[in-house]
Amino acid sequence: MPIETDCLEQDAVIWQPDGRDDYGRDTVGSASGIKVRWEHKVEENLDPDTSNQAVVAILYVSSVIPVGTIVWEGALADLPGTPTPLYQVISQKSVPDIKNREVRRSLQLINFHDTLPS
After folding, report:
1. Please, which residues bridge with residue 86 across strands?
2. Domain around 20
3. Residue 54 domain-assigned?
4. 3 in a domain, yes or no?
5. What is the DSSP letter of 75?
6. SS3 state at 55
7. Among the four residues 8, 49, 61, 110, which has the most C-beta atoms within 10 Å?
8. Which residues, in sequence order, are bridge partners of residue 87?
9. Cα distances (Å, whole numbers) of residue 29 to 14, 39, 55
10. Whole-angstrom distance, CA of residue 117 vs CA of residue 49
11. Once rounded to an integer, what is the mean pLDDT over residues 62-70?
12. Sequence-separated (6 or more) residues with CB below 8 Å from residue 88
């Protein structure tokens, strides 16, 4: 296993965005489980309109996860009816190795204070 993905031993459940409803609210697809590495920390980040956002976690993943994805910490088999706390991906970063064969991907997460979009 390459070093870029060797540390992915924790679980997360993700709901990727799949469009908008008739009222303009985001909708998400079905839940899927992935292997990740969680790094809980608090950082400040500027969003595009230059206001501060509190990044509460960095998530390391093995595949591309789109911005706007909703994340829950835990295994898919342990998913409760109303999962909390939820996080939302606000940015992603990909760093290739020196030979451009493997990529280390990280996501910045903020708290998602709403209910899970349907």
Report:
1. 72, 112
2. 10-112
3. yes
4. no
5. -
6. strand
7. 61
8. 71, 111
9. 9, 25, 24
10. 24
11. 94
12. 68, 69, 70, 71, 109, 110, 111, 112
The answer to whether residue 5 is domain-embedded is: no
Q: What total of structural domains would you count in the chain?
A: 1
In a domain, 38, yes or no: yes
Which residues share a beta bridge with 59?
A: 38, 107
Q: Report residue 77's pLDDT band, with 50, 70 and 90 as the boundaries.
A: very high
pLDDT tens digits for 1-37? Answer: 677 677 899 999 999 999 888 888 888 999 999 999 9
Q: Indicate whether this model's pTM tops 0.70.
A: yes
CA 90 – CA 94 distance, rounded (Å)? 14
Burial 50-70 (b: 16+ CB within 10 A, else e): eeeeebebbbbbbeebeeebb
The answer to whether 27 and 17 have CB atoms below 8 angstroms apart is yes
What span, in angstroms and rounded, lies between the C-alpha atoms of 42 and 39?
A: 10
CB–CB of 14/37 below 8 Å?
Answer: no
